[in-house]
Amino acid sequence: MRPVPMQYQLIETRLQERLANGTTRCHLCLWRCKIGHGQRGFCQAHVNRYGVLYNLSYGILSAIDIGSIEQKPVRHYRPGSQVLSVGSYGCNFRCGGCHNLDISWGVSALDELARGQSRAAYLTPAELVQAAKRHQVQGIAFTYSEPAVWLEYVLDVSQLARAEGLFTVYVSNSFVTPEALEMMADSVDVLCSDIKSLEDSFYQDICRVARVEQVLTSIEAAQRLGIHVETRTNIIPGKNDDMAMLQGIATWIRDHLGADSPWHITRFFPAFKLRHLQETPEEILWRAHDQARSIGLRNVYVYSGKGCDCAEENLPVAEFLAADPDQLYTVKRCASDCCNEDGVLLKKYENSDS
Ligand code: SF4
Question: Is the pLDDT at 107 greater than 50, yes or no?
């Protein structure tokens, strides 16, 4: 395992390409952002400092909780296991129905990190794995926020977790590069991925550069790489509740992941920009279930309660840790001196989405 910092600092982005004039390209997710000095990528979690790209959120936890693996939802990998779920800040999508806005998009939290003003909790991979063992769980799940934009920490934790006999679960939108998937395959055990729709227009509403085919290709590649894959569709009234389209998702899973591949159908609950919509009628969930079963998909699960892996507020991280809260919530300033006289404060913290 690579050396890890014992205190908060910016960590070099694992998949970056150095371009001319100090510009960098991030290859963690399929945005493949091109980022100049002082700018951050679309997710806001990676910043270019003098021609090198760094992850701002390494080791920074927004939420933590303990529950069953079935809540992720994952049902065909170590059923009955307990997992320690953690999330950070940052996402590469902007879903109108997001239930985790503060911790998922986390833009203001990432702004505070960029300014050296954050008091968010920081845990080394070893501290997180020790917390999992102390609570006697069998696995660690990266969830709540998109783990692709936090991959440096996810990889370090996953390697250590595996060495300590714990498995890891990666809950994702699968808008991730093949290069990142290959890195994950060595240490991540389970991918629970959304298939939100088979319509490009649905994806482009929440991520203007995303196409369905990219997401499906990533999910299939993850399975081919040996990661245990389960998929989930959150059915939103009027957005992705067309029965022919839902049958198309079930058919794709059957043909590309296998007839035994689990599909989780979850219910939409109004939130954020989609607050005006109704909860999904249960009858729609069951119709999608029945038609999936009728075309030969054998493991289809319906969740009429909250099937999404939501953390509605920042959970009290200190409650799960042995750390002194006064130490845990100190101001996070990068411990490295690579920014020279600028210190940790960015002169600019511009947003970039190109
Ligand atoms: S959105 Fe974030 S993780 Fe994705 S390519 Fe851009 S900087 Fe990298």
Answer: yes
Distance CA 297, CA 244 (A): 15
CB of 31 closer than 6 angstroms to any ligand 1 atom: yes
- C-beta of 110 in contact with ligand 1 (< 6 A): no
From 12, 48, 54, 149, the mutation candidate for ligand 1 (largest count of ligand atoms within 8 A of CB) is: 149
CB distance 176 to ligand 1 below 6 Å: no
CATH number of this structure's domain 60-306, picked from the four choices 3.20.20.70, 3.10.20.30, 3.90.1570.30, 3.30.450.40: 3.20.20.70
Q: Whose CA is nearest to atom 3 of ligand 1?
A: 149
Q: Give the whole-angstrom CA distance, residue 142 versus residue 163.
A: 17
Q: In this predicted structure, what is the pLDDT of residue 260?
A: 98
Say if residue 300's pLDDT is above 90. Answer: yes
- pTM for this prediction: 0.92
* Per-residue pLDDT, 310: 63
Q: Write the pLDDT tens digit of every residue in 152-176.
A: 999 999 999 999 999 999 999 999 9
Domain assignments of the chain as residue spans, ordered by start: 60-306
Q: Which of 13, 26, 32, 145 to probe ligand 1 with, by most ligand atoms within 8 A of CB?
A: 26
